[in-house]
């Protein structure tokens, strides 16, 4: 039930002790403020890491050859490993049910790309249509390379948005235009884009793998094997699944190319999910540290509230004795002290919450720091933290209040 006289007493007490109340509230508000800001930057770091790995599908696997570094079965170290079409076919036959998409890349050397008598400085890569989900690319216009293009050695090309802007800005659409690649005409059938800010992947012109190998003396050579594995629902399960796939695949490739099982440099593998796990583990530790610092700050504020309530009880001992002499119940004394404690804690906590959320809302979208993108915090989490703080404030005020309620009336009236 609302008791206006009790609220008047609380406000009178606050007015009489403005500086003390302000400093107590400031310690509580700063605790919430620091915690929310730290949590916001923790989330910003996670957003930044997600953005870093957005360029390629998280569960993709990239394989490329290198030189051997260990002697094996009479074969000297330093041999250059060359991937072949057969390697891709065997992995598809033996392990095809373990991945969602599989593709290859072949980069012909010494090719010249010309459009309207202008020499273009872009890379040409032979591939298949399954590269699109592995590279996490999207289509802006037209289509991607398909199976019919591969089977028919079609002379078609897919260019990037960057090439479209830099070379074909004068036409409504580059579809149907022809590029001359080392003297052969290739019809543009599609335009792709890359997610993320890395435009390095958009320096490529894709053509069918069979056309690239046949037209540019590639024989059955490959530069990359690329795979997209299914998401297993959790980070640890996905990492374990990719590790099994990589181990089985490398066992076959090592046997085929005469590479020692201990030679990790002859056939290189890059797995974004493994990198992501390390970064997510780092951000998890940082978030834990942020929580620890924020909670310690809040605890310091709550201890300050408790100390202030002890001082209040000491100062009002005689008043409490008079109240008890006039018939005040112990729980009425407790409620009086608690109400002031909860009021100060709640006002301070919500002030710190509103101020910190406002700063994140205004400043967060404009933050431009490496690995930090749009710092923000879940309002429900922040609000729940304030509620916990208010409860903690009530607990902090309870013990001084209970001490006040147990003071003997005669001793309280004798207090000076």
Verbal overview:
Keywords: Cell membrane, Membrane, Transmembrane, Transmembrane helix. It is found in: Cell membrane. This protein has 416 residues and is an alpha+beta fold. The chain folds into two domains: 4-52 and 278-414, no CATH class; 60-271, no CATH class. The chain has helices at residues 4-16, 18-52, 85-95, 131-135, 147-151, 161-167, 209-215, 235-257, 272-315, 317-325, 330-363, 379-405, 409-414; strands spanning 60-65, 83-84, 101-105, 113-115, 118-120, 123-127, 137-142, 156-160, 178-181, 184-194, 204-208, 221-222, 224-228, 267-270. Strands 4, 5, 7, 8, 9 and 10 form a six-stranded mixed beta sheet that branches. The chain has a four-stranded antiparallel beta sheet with strand order 3-13-1-14. The protein has a two-stranded antiparallel ribbon with strand order 2-12. The chain is elongated. The relative contact order is 0.18. The model has no long low-confidence stretch (mean pLDDT 82).
Topology:
Elements: H1 4-16, H2 18-52, E1 60-65, E2 83-84, H3 85-95, E3 101-105, E4 113-115, E5 118-120, E6 123-127, H4 131-135, E7 137-142, H5 147-151, E8 156-160, H6 161-167, E9 178-181, E10 184-194, E11 204-208, H7 209-215, E12 221-222, E13 224-228, H8 235-257, E14 267-270, H9 272-315, H10 317-325, H11 330-363, H12 379-405, H13 409-414
Parallel strand pairs: 6-11, 8-10
Antiparallel strand pairs: 1-13, 1-14, 2-12, 3-13, 4-5, 4-9, 7-10, 9-10
Helix pairs in contact: 2-9, 2-11, 9-10, 9-11, 9-12, 11-12
